[in-house]
Structure formats: C-alpha cells, structure tokens
C-alpha cells in the first residue's frame, strides 16, 4: 500500500505491506519527493506500529466510557459554554500531524457553525512567519518552488536550517546535485556549526537573530555592484526604493552587526551576485523569532530584486517542519485565515458562508496559539479541545503552559497515546487513529498533495479525527453539514470550496477534484497544487508568469529594520540557548521513542557548550548541568564542542516528562511571539549553566 511518511515536511512516499505479524515499510520509488529513499526515521516506521502506550478507549473524568457517552459529554460542554459565555469561550488547538480532511472538518465546525475563529494549530510554531511574509510580498501564502529546483540551482543557501538532520532526503538531493554540477555551491548560515554547516562550501556563523541584517546587506550590495534586475523590479514589483533605503550601506556595518568577518561576508555576497540561479532555503531558525516575518521578507526582497523567482533553480523557499503544515494552511487551520486561502474580509466571509450554507460564520480572526493559551489562563476560554499535539512540551515556557492546562475548565484531548505530558491534564481523552490506520491527504513543502492510506485496522476503539469532530457537530445540531461517511467526501468538498467563485483570484485551487470518486481518491497520485482546468496535472513552479496575487499583480518589497531577539535578563556568565531537532527523533518522541534504533543517537538529554565557556563555568565533559533562567530550570549532560560559538549553547527539543523527568528545552523558552505572525521566539533565550 502506498502512503506518506508521517514525520517531516519533506513528505516522502512509502510502501507499506503486512509481513507475518509485522509491517514492512520501504521508500516509494514512484514518489516525486524521495524516489524510493527514506531517512532513518522513515526507515524505522514499522517499529513504531505498536499497541504499547496507545489510548484505546474514551475516558471522561478518569473513567473509561463509551463513545456515545464521551461524545455527549463533549457536546454538552461546548453547548453550555457557548450558551453561557459566547462562541469565543471554546477553542480548537490542532496539529500539523493531522490530515487535511480532519483539519477541514474542525475548521468548518468552529469557524462555519459555532461562529468563532478560535482554531489554531501547532503549525503556528513551525511556519506562520513564512506564511505572513509570503502574504505581504505576494498577496498569497504561495510557496513558489518545487523540490526539483534544489537540483537545478547553482547556489544553495541554507539559512536557519540544519537540513542534514531535519530534512535529510532534501539534503541528500542537494548533495547529489552538487556532485554532478561543478558550479553548485552550498552556503550555510547558522550560529552553530551544524552537521549541514560542517559540509558547506561556506559557513557563516552569524550572531543569533541577525539574519535580516545579513540579507538587507545583500540587497544593498547587489545595488552597489549593479546586479539588480531592474526590469523585473520596474515591471513586477512595488516599494523597492523604500526597501533599499532601509539597508546598511557598508560591509563593515553588516559584518559587525552579524559578528562575522568581512572577507566571509564578501565571499557570500559575491557568490550571490554572480550566481545565475540561487535558492534561499529557510526553516525554523528564521521563522521562530520575534521578527520572523521580517526576516522572511528580507530574504524575499533579495530574490525579487535579483529577479530570482519563478525560474528553475531560483527562489525564496520556506521549508515546513511538519508533514501537513501546508495542508492545514489550505483548509484554514490558522486562526487568522478562512478556508481555501480565503481571508477574513467581506468577500471571503460571504463566499465561505454561502458555500457552507451557514449564517453563523466567524466574522473576524481568532486567537493565535500563544494568545489562545493566554485566554485559557485568563478564564476567557473555558473549553479547549487539543487534537494530535502535546502543547505541554511543545509550547514555550512550558511550566506556565502546564499550569494553564491544569486550570482549564474543560480540557479535551484527542490523541493516539494514553500518557503524554498533556493528556495528564485532560478531563476527556478521545482515542484517535494513528499513522497506518488513517486515510486522507497531506501537503508537503513543495505543494505536493499525497495520500496517507490505512493499511492496518484501528486499534481498540480508536476513531478518525474527522469522524469524532463530525459526531460532536451533529450533537450540537449541525448534522446536515457533517454527514460524512468517508474521507474522500471531505476532500471533494474541500476541492469544491477551493474552486468556488475563484476565477484565478486565489492561488490555492484544486477544483479539478471537485467530483472525485472514492475510487479515484483511493488511487490518487502525488500532485502539486494548483490542480484545476488550467493546470490539470498540477504546477511545479509558481510566478513563472511574473503575476502575483496582489490587487495590481505586482510583488511587494517590504522595508525591513532588523530587530535583535528579545533576551531575558543577563548576568555575566549567561549563555544564549539555541534549540532544534535532533537527527533521529520527532517532536515529543511519542512515536519515535518506540523504535530502539532511533534512541541511540542521543541516549540522554545533553547540552552542547563551547569548551571556552565550559572552562569559565567549571563544567567538565559529561557533567550533569543545571540550566536555568527566570522561567524554570532543566538538567542535561554537558557535551563540549567547538561547533558551539562561545557564549551560546544548544539543546534538542524532544525530551519531556515521559522520558526525562527534569529535562525540557521549552522550560526555558519565552512566551514571546512575532507580532505579525504570532510565531513564538523559540531560538534565543539567556540561561545560566552550572554543574550539579
Ligand atoms: Fe520521513 Fe522526512 Fe525522513 Fe522523508 S525525510 S523519510 S518525510 S522523516
């Protein structure tokens, strides 16, 4: 059976087949993302298909119960809260792990029928800055590129991305292309000498958070050396002069700000100025910042100014972290958008309400992730339904998040797993189907929609998320709009909505599937949206016609004033803590920890410290170290490495209460978000470290 790997945004195709009592999982040679290859996480998927730790029956107030009673209970809690406190007193917090069909139904219920836009998702933590920047520049949340561009470029710039570990199959594609093309250069911009940086032609270890200055400097440099595409700027963009005016005029200024040598800076700028085809490949290191949207726009500005967009091997390319972060965006999983990339404006509200035949549609954006949890803290949200995610570990300032979950009047959690850091606070636990049991679609980082297919029976009483939500919708009196019996019906409706009065005004359009049958859905092959009358076989590259989705069809430069991270109070020995994914684990380890082979890469929580700092702090290799700031503290084993710049340290994000009682990187991150996107600033936090 063909399916899609449930981990990262690369979205690799897999072939899964039952063998005796087990399942064999291999790469799908026909999938365009991976052509048969899998990274270590994907290759160990079969070991994660275990009943160990699974949630197998509904639980209400600590008592196992029937589905009927659990669903009645949930619906009653929603009804009471809405009647007493209004629709904004309830909320969904969703996940880039769930399928587009699940997302669609949740969004439809909350925004379309309950009348609140309090639907947000852990994808907010992953790529919302990239989304906000695309919308400012292009008028739409459009990822311009295709994975094939990674092979067609001459200059691959990875900024804020350790792709060798986080998007391994894409990284392998880049390295293979580099072997074939003697002109292919790889630049890595990362404060840490990561695995990716270690293999780059040039590594710029900039000071944490100085990326926008680096790209602003590049824009000014291109202007100085006469490498602007003036025709493209004049004909297809707005606001160039203002953007250029905001840029530093000397290399010295940029080098000092970013903490790198002028020679290295000049090398990078020269390579960009002279490359015919350049890609800026960016990820969480850019997005997870108090100015993530500005950083993304600084990158986009450079590609617009050099005309390096909409052409093979060129472009600003944001890479999603999760398997369905993009699918969630398409159906309206973010609190500030409507379904099918429509906005909360008069046109969007009118179209969606007519399509859903609802007169109770939400009229304004809802609360983004951090604001949503703050509203629970302030007792404004009374009923919170968390689906397929573990916010007690993954949200910043996790001690505060735990207190919020604990005080929530009614916390409902749908999950595959019985015991997570979040489920312990739930009033209601609903057993959801997991990978291998679910049926639906996901969209990866190059707009490719792929099927996840069920090849094993749901365990115990586990049910699909779309079914669970629809059953609650029926109990709330919206039965007519939620009569789904199969995921393909939801996909078909989603496709119809994407084409509804679209006429090319919106980028997301899969209207070619508006009459899809179950049989066609079952045999659906991976395909890149848009998929409509004009592009019946999908479209690899957007903006090849230099037409954008703004009112005047021109792209917008955004004038960027670089902003440094908001750091908590310092003392003379404090270090800046950076964090990110380890090579072999996924998110909060609820699935990957079941595969023994994946646990050997980082056997215990560790913190990477530069030997100079370790000496100053009297920390020896393998010491148990307490890392603390005003939020909390955490324990980890010291690893000394010159890959860390002095003054900085690094931890992986995966550890949590289930696996290491006192270790969690997010104990130490701040409850601060980018003001435009709402994406938290995970990456830079001051801490003190001492051996215990
Ligand atoms: Fe899965 Fe990502 Fe690895 Fe591909 S690269 S196998 S999608 S984890």
Automatic annotation (TrEMBL):
Molecular function as annotated in GO: 4 iron, 4 sulfur cluster binding; metal ion binding; molybdopterin cofactor binding; oxidoreductase activity
Cellular component GO terms held in the UniProt record: membrane; oxidoreductase complex
Keywords: 4Fe-4S, Iron, Iron-sulfur, Metal-binding, Molybdenum, Nitrate assimilation, Oxidoreductase
GO terms, biological process: cellular respiration; nitrate assimilation
Protein family membership: Belongs to the prokaryotic molybdopterin-containing oxidoreductase family. NasA/NapA/NarB subfamily.
Superkingdom assignment: Bacteria
The 4Fe-4S Mo/W bis-MGD-type domain, residue ranges: 1-53
Entire protein: shown range: 1 to 692 of 877
Protein name, per record: Nitrate reductase
Needed cofactors: Mo-bis(molybdopterin guanine dinucleotide); [4Fe-4S] cluster
């Amino acid at each position: 059976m063909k399916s899609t790997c449930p981990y990262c945004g690369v979205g690799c195709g897999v072939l899964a087949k039952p063998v005796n009592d087990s399942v064999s999982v291999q790469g799908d040679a026909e999938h365009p993302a991976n052509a048969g290859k899998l990274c270590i996480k994907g290759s160990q998927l079969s070991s994660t298909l275990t009943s160990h730790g699974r949630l197998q029956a509904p639980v209400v107030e600590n008592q196992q119960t029937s589905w009927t009673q659990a669903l009645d209970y949930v619906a009653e809690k929603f009804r009471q809260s809405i009647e007493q406190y209004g629709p904004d007193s309830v909320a969904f917090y969703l996940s880039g792990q769930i399928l587009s069909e699940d997302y669609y139904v949740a969004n439809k219920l909350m925004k379309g029928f309950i009348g609140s836009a309090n639907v947000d998702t852990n994808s907010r933590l992953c790529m919302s800055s990239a989304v906000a920047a695309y919308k400012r520049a292009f008028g739409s949340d459009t990822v311009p590129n295709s994975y094939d561009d990674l092979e067609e470029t001459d200059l691959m710039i990875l900024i804020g991305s350790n792709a060798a570990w986080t998007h391994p199959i894409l990284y392998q594609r880049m390295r293979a292309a580099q072997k074939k093309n003697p002109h292919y250069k790889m630049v890595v911009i990362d404060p840490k000498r990561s695995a990716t940086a270690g293999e780059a032609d040039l590594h710029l270890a900039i000071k944490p958070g100085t990326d926008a200055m680096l790209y602003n400097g590049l824009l000014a440099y291109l202007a100085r050396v006469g490498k602007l595409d003036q025709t493209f700027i004049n004909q297809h963009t707005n606001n160039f002069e203002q953007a250029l005016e905001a840029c530093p005029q000397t290399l010295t200024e940029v080098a000092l700000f970013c903490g790198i040598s002028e020679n290295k800076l000049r090398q990078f700028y020269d390579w960009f100025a002279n490359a015919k085809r350049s890609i800026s490949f960016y990820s969480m290191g850019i997005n997870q910042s108090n100015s993530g949207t500005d950083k993304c726009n600084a990158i986009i500005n450079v590609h617009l100014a050099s005309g390096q967009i909409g052409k093979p091997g060129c472009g600003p390319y944001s890479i999603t972290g999760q398997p369905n972060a993009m699918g969630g965006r398409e159906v309206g999983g973010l609190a500030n958008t409507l379904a099918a990339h429509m906005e909360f404006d008069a046109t969007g509200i009118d179209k969606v309400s007519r399509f859903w035949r609802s007169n109770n549609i939400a009229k304004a954006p809802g609360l983004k992730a951090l604001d949503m949890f703050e509203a629970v803290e302030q007792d404004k949200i009374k009923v919170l339904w968390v689906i397929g995610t573990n916010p007690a570990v993954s949200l910043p300032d996790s001690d505060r998040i735990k207190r919020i979950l604990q005080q929530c009047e009614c916390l409902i959690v749908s999950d595959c797993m019985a015991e997570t850091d979040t489920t312990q606070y739930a009033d209601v636990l609903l057993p959801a189907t997991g990978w291998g049991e679910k049926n639906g679609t996901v969209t990866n980082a190059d707009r490719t929609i792929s099927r996840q297919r069920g090849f094993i029976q749901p365990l115990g009483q586990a049910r699909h998320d779309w079914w669970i939500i629809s059953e609650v919708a029926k109990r709330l009196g919206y039965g007519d709009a939620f009569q789904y019996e199969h995921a393909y019906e939801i996909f078909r409706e989603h496709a119809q909505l994407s084409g509804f009065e679209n006429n090319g005004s919106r980028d997301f359009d899969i209207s070619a599937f508006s009459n899809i049958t179950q049989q066609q859905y079952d045999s659906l092959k991976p395909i890149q949206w848009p998929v409509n009358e004009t592009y019946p076989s999908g479209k690899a590259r957007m903006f090849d016609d230099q037409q954008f989705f703004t009112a005047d069809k021109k792209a917008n430069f955004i004038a960027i004033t670089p902003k440094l991270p908001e750091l908590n109070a310092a003392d003379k020995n404090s270090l800046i803590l950076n964090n990110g994914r380890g090579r072999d684990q996924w998110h909060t380890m609820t699935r990957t920890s079941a595969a023994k082979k994946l646990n050997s890469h980082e056997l215990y929580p560790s913190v990477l410290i530069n030997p100079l700092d370790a000496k100053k702090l009297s920390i020896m290799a393998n010491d148990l170290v307490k890392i603390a700031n005003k939020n909390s503290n955490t324990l980890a084993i010291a690893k000394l490495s010159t890959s860390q710049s002095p003054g900085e340290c690094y931890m992986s994000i995966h550890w949590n209460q289930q696996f290491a009682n006192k270790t969690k990187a997010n104990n130490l991150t701040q409850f601060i978000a980018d003001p435009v996107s709402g994406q938290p600033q995970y990456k830079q936090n001051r801490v003190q470290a001492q051996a215990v």
